[in-house]
Specification:
Strand order of the largest sheet: 11-13-15-20-21-17-18
Helix content: under 10%
Strand content: 35-45%
CATH architecture of the largest domain: Beta Complex
Structural class: mainly beta
Radius of gyration: 42 Å
Number of helices: 2
CATH superfamily of the largest domain: Phage P22 tailspike-like, N-terminal domain
Shape: rod-shaped
CATH topology of the largest domain: Tailspike Protein, Chain
Largest sheet: 7 strands, mixed
Number of strands: 38
């Protein structure tokens, strides 16, 4: 391995030491230390690609190999001198006896600014080695944006870039080349890493042969904490996979999931599935069910309440109250629809309502005939109406109940003094009628 050192840190630009302004088109001249002998510098750390004895910077003050293409500058072990000039040849600064490869130069000794460029892309982009340390922002609002990495072998161990999802929709995709894998811990994303959430970002670093995710940040929810949005709980791939989508394996897996295990969380990444083994306490939200699940004791358990644990109880609709559906709770306004609850009742004396519920009117038609009207009609004339009553003393103290006409909205009834007596009792001292049925 050749002993070499970079003259500047990645991202360094040449500035005016008096104003701090970037010097457009600056010229960097290199000499052997303590001499005026020009010194050759190189574009690579193996010192195989010479740049000549001077380097011209672009309009942003960044060193280039040809006036346009950005480049790093490397020297060998001998000490050297560097003179920075404007494009007009005016000396900006000069430094002599700078150590070569035996010691890294301190950028603080130079009038330079070390930066991490931020570059926004809304179209697909091929990342080049000169983009070292750049933070790319993918504006994918109008469609997926793909960033293609350079060869991890070519850029070498330790080379890195950062990529962030900055769209209101769609995905940012990070592709490798030459079948080089992208991995995070034990999770292998194969050759494509999708970023699906706005604000999600990764720092991705070359290990000299493949790519490693050095850091991964989501905007609102940390997947590392086990809070994951899951599309569905299945035992086999759905067949209509979406990049970045998570699924929960709910039983013995099959198909492309056959090598995984029940309870695993899996993510689709363009052409392959990535497996995540859950840890105790992980939580997921299953969109297809609208339910949260927690991983505990080797199984995923929903937050629905059971006889053994507290939890969420779903609110019942009217038909579920009427059929006494289990694991539901009735809203107070729906309790009246339970089959065991009276839908209406009235306590009367003659034609006067003394107390009632669900009864709109009580009419004394004379001769013991009464008409009871309901606030809400029954669904049919098939409803029950048990009653109790007491008559005046001249009729033995009790009146017999007989209904004369039944309709969904009204009930016509008569009180008689005896079984064989068709004459109605005109003044029933007290009676109570309740109504059961479907409304």
């Amino acid at each position: 391995m050749t002993d070499s050192v970079a003259v500047f840190s990645p991202g360094t630009r040449i500035t005016d030491n008096a104003t701090g302004a970037v010097v457009s088109g600056a010229l960097l001249e290199f000499y052997d230390a303590d001499t005026t002998n020009p010194k050759t510098v190189y574009a690579d750390k193996e010192l195989a690609t010479p740049l000549g004895t001077s380097v011209t910077c672009d309009s942003l003050g960044y060193p280039t190999s040809d006036g346009t293409t950005k480049t790093q500058i490397y020297v060998g072990t001998p000490a050297y001198k560097i003179v920075a000039k404007t494009s007009a040849g005016v000396v900006i600064w000069a430094h002599d006896n700078i150590s070569g490869a035996v010691k890294v130069i301190d950028p603080g000794d130079l009038s330079v600014i070390a930066t991490t460029p931020v570059v926004t892309k809304s179209l697909n982009y091929i990342i080049v080695p000169e983009d070292q340390s750049t933070e790319f922002v993918g504006n994918c609002s109008s469609g997926d944006v793909t960033f293609t990495l350079p060869s991890a072998v070519d850029v070498g161990d330790g080379w890195f870039v950062s990529v962030q999802h900055a769209g209101s929709a769609n995905q940012v995709l990070i592709n490798s080349t030459s079948s080089q894998t992208i991995s995070s811990g034990s999770a292998n994303y194969d050759t494509v890493l999708p970023l699906s959430l706005s604000g999600e970002s990764v720092k991705i670093t070359s290990d000299g042969g493949n790519w490693r995710i050095s850091s991964h940040t989501s905007p609102h929810v940390k997947s590392a904490h086990g809070i994951i949005t899951v599309v569905d709980r299945l035992t086999a791939p759905p067949g209509s996979e979406v990049n970045g989508a998570f699924y929960l394996i709910s039983g013995p897996p099959s198909g492309s999931w056959a090598a995984f295990a029940e309870n695993d969380v899996v993510q689709y990444t363009s052409s392959a599935w990535v497996r995540f083994v859950p840890h105790e306490g992980w939580q997921v939200w299953v969109a297809d069910e609208g339910l949260h699940y927690t991983y505990a004791g080797g199984a995923w358990t929903s937050r629905i309440a059971t006889a053994d644990r507290p939890g969420i109880v779903e609110k019942a609709v009217q038909t579920e109250v009427e059929t006494e559906a289990p694991e539901k709770y009735p809203d107070a306004s729906l309790i009246r629809h339970h089959p065991g609850v009276a839908k209406a009742w009235v306590q009367g004396s003659g034609g006067t309502i003394q107390a009632d519920y669900g009864v709109s009117s009580l009419t004394n038609n004379s001769n013991g005939d009464y008409t009871i009207a309901f606030d809400t009609a029954f669904s049919s004339a098939n409803y029950a109406h048990p009653t109790s009553s007491s008559a005046n003393d001249s009729h033995g103290g009790y009146a017999l109940w007989q209904f004369a006409g039944v309709a969904p909205t009204t009930l016509e009834c008569r009180f008689r003094s005896g079984v064989g007596d068709d004459e109605g009792i005109g003044n029933v001292a007290r009676y109570t009628v309740a109504f059961f049925g479907d409304q």
